[in-house]
Amino acid sequence: xxxxxxxxxxCEGALVLGGGIAGLFTALKLAPMPVTVLTGxxxxxxxxxxxxxxxxxxxxxxxxxxxxxxxxxxAAGAGLxxxxxxxxxxxxxPARIADLLDYGAPFDRKADGxxxxxxxxxxxxxRIVHVKGDRAxxxxxxxxxxxxxxxxxxxxxxxxxxxxxxxxDGRVVGxxxxxxxxxxxxxxxxxxxxxxLATGGLGALYAVTTNPLEARGEGLGMAARAGALIxxxxxxxxxxxxxxxxxxxxxxxxEALRGEGATLVDERGKHFIGAVHADGxxxxxxxxxxxxxxxxxxxxxxxxxxxxxxxxxxxQRFPTVFASCMSAGIDPAVQPIPVxxxxxxxxxxxxxxxNGRSSLAGLWVVGECAATGLHGANRLASNSxxxxxxxxxxxxxxxxxxxxxxxxxxxPLVAPLAALQxxxxxxxxxxxxxxxxxxxxxxxTQLLEIIGRIEQAGNGDAALLNITAAxxxxxxxxxxxxxxxxxxxxxxxxxxxxxxxxxxLTLADTDTPAPTPQRRAL
Length: 522
Ligand SMILES: Cc1cc2nc3c(=O)[nH]c(=O)nc-3n(C[C@H](O)[C@H](O)[C@H](O)COP(=O)(O)OP(=O)(O)OC[C@H]3O[C@@H](n4cnc5c(N)ncnc54)[C@H](O)[C@@H]3O)c2cc1C
Prior knowledge:
Blueprint: E1 7-10, E2 14-17, H1 21-30, E3 35-39, E4 56-57, H2 66-76, H3 83-103, E5 117-118, E6 128-129, H4 136-149, E7 154-158, E8 160-168, E9 171-179, E10 186-191, E11 194-197, H5 218-225, E12 230-231, E13 236-243, H6 255-259, E14 263-266, H7 285-297, E15 302-305, H8 314-317, H9 319-327, E16 337-346, E17 349-351, E18 363-365, E19 370-371, H10 384-402, H11 425-434, H12 441-457, H13 462-480, E20 504-505
Parallel strand pairs: 1-10, 2-3, 2-11, 3-7, 11-18, 17-19
Antiparallel strand pairs: 4-6, 5-6, 8-9, 9-10, 12-17, 12-20, 13-16, 14-15, 15-16
Helix pairs in contact: 1-4, 1-10, 2-3, 3-10, 5-13, 11-12, 12-13
Flavin-adenine dinucleotide is lined by residues 17-23, 39-41, 46-49, 51-56, 136-137, 160-162, 198-201, 210-211, 214-215, 218-219, 252, 345, 367-368, 382-385, 388.
């Protein structure tokens, strides 16, 4: 970065980048150690966290235990989960739900006062905690944001767009961020002895996504550009039923609709999923998503028909989906809902150990931007918010053990919101086309060329380079993995190799993607 630094902000204690559930929970767990939480938009209101509809998985029912939760997670992960990490997360889950209850999260409760537990696809037991039906993300984010604002050791800095990690002697010592816009734009260096990235996923790098604009892989790109080891970037989960009404991001038609018996049909009313998987509409997410994708690619339209299964009770039982449909003039009680798969969740990310440490000294990672080994090649529903909580607590403990705590309250500082531009349309279209539900050598090679051209045209702009670095890692790792597994399908390598291995690579490895990624220790 060559631009002039307008201001230096010293951060006592730790610096967290990201105001989603992972970032805010980590900051709360660090208290009373001083921590600065930096976000592009308002803490608790931006990022994917506030949009989560389902809930958080934790084995809390009397007939459930962590082993069953771990077994379901490993089954979904298609051979690439790290069993030790899965065990740790499944064991810690109930304690993290208890933390959220302490912070005031208003989980739905049964008549006897106990937290109500719901069942979700691929979970063998009812173990999902919800808030007000489909409002888990919004309510938990708001609870954590309120709590963080009232915690004296936490300084919230909103309206900063981080663009690069600050390095000294191979160690992360802070980060550079832009604030303001136009003539008032300023470049700030924030210095801290511990930097924690909690920047979320990268769905917005795809043309069709359920993710908000902030989910564009910038934390991943920043860490990769600084030399961090990246793990499993090729694994991107696509939700089968985003509502196809031309909105960006695309609203979700929750899986619960199919759980209630809604069926997938084409424009002629032909049912086609039964031929693809024995469980039909309730088959694994990646298989249902790919079947829909292929139907659309063959020139058809696909609809979710809820008329018989849900009908007139739709508005009352699924208010969020109902509102999305009605905004496009579709009444789902009497009309099928047009649907298409959409990029939804990134299993890969910055490689992390069991304490959230990255391969770079001074840098920890937590939440969707991290790759801990929990999800393998396919995430089990409602495990992602959980991962942010479990690793948030572990990162806090690790950082606290390394840094001396201080009791002084940092000065508050509030700046105007920085304008955020979407990633280039060409990049999003190319990612959807070549690194989507079906990939092959030709398309991925073409994608890497397109990314290279976009990088060159960007004249070294750091924010653009973060985005293209994230896209490059997805494309290169997808090219390297010459097999099909979980969310990653290669039409030129449809087989699943007998011995599956996680991918570990650096940004430098994407220059000449070798067929088999080398295994490296963190
Ligand atoms: C529609 C939808 C429904 C979902 N439902 C569920 C569910 O039911 N259960 C579940 O477990 N998971 C669900 N998920 C996934 C889950 O919501 C996410 O994985 C999780 O919220 C990620 O949390 P996070 O804190 O890591 O990131 P986010 O919540 O995405 O927060 C990232 C933060 O980083 C900030 N940021 C990013 N880059 C920069 C930058 N360069 N400068 C400054 N700030 C930056 C953003 O502004 C934001 O504050 C869902 C996701 C979506 C999109």
